[in-house]
Amino acid sequence: MERSCITYYLEMTSASELQEKPQRYDLQIIECEVPQAEFNRFLYKLVGTPWEWGDLDCWSSSEWQALVEQECHRTWVAYHRGAIAGYYELYRPDGCNCEIRYFGLAPQFLGCGFGGALLSHAVRSAWEWQGTERVWVHTCTFDHPAALGNYQARGFRVFKQEDTQPSQ
């Protein structure tokens, strides 16, 4: 039986709204300044598989390449003791509304206290990107149970909610 899904769209309209969680000394967050489509595909699967992210599963290598090589797309990876702890992507095709397109932790790092710090880094990076006027993200009831709370704890507020019922 399929479950209904509630999608929450959240936004922040000023950098001063960020309620930052400090980054631990043993978490390094590095921007991938050289786009690598297959690396983004790997990160998407690593983080998204437990939550059944599947919207990009059918993408070809050229579609991944077209996304990640755009000037309006940026990727950061979090490392803990050399292992990939998580990642996020920022996407700003209009030059002012910055979406945290994908965000999450690798399964073995859930519950380690990295989520708030990684999200704080993502929001700060979005605001530091010259021209950003708004940062937004969406999450749903299929994502990690703490996702919505983490976004709200960092200062995001819900501006839209959609309830999708399973098809009969």
What does this molecule look like?
With 168 residues, the chain is an alpha+beta fold. It has a single domain (5-33, 71-164), classed as Gcn5-related N-acetyltransferase (GNAT) (Aminopeptidase, 3-Layer(aba) Sandwich), CATH 3.40.630. Helices cover 24% and strands 32% of the residues. The chain has 4 helices and 7 strands; from the N terminus they run ββααβββαβαβ. A 7-stranded mixed beta sheet has the order 2-3-4-5-6-1-7, with helices on both faces. Helix 3 (115-128) links the parallel strand 5 (97-105) and strand 6 (134-140).
- Kindly state the number of beta strands: 7
Q: Name the strands of the widest sheet in spatial order.
A: 2-3-4-5-6-1-7
Major sheet summary line: 7 strands, mixed
Quote the average pLDDT: 93
Query: For the terminal residues, how far apart are their CA atoms?
Result: 10 Å
Order of helices and strands: EEHHEEEHEHE
Radius of gyration from CA coordinates: 16 Å
Look up the CATH topology: Aminopeptidase
Which structural category do the helix and sheet elements fall into? alpha+beta
Whole-number total of structural domains: 1
Number of continuous helical runs: 4
At the first level of CATH, what is the class? Answer: Alpha Beta
Q: Which spans have pLDDT < 50 for at least 5 consecutive residues?
A: none
Shape: globular
Under the CATH scheme, which architecture would be assigned? 3-Layer(aba) Sandwich
CATH superfamily: Gcn5-related N-acetyltransferase (GNAT)
Helix content: 10-25%
How much of the sequence is in beta strands?
A: 25-35%
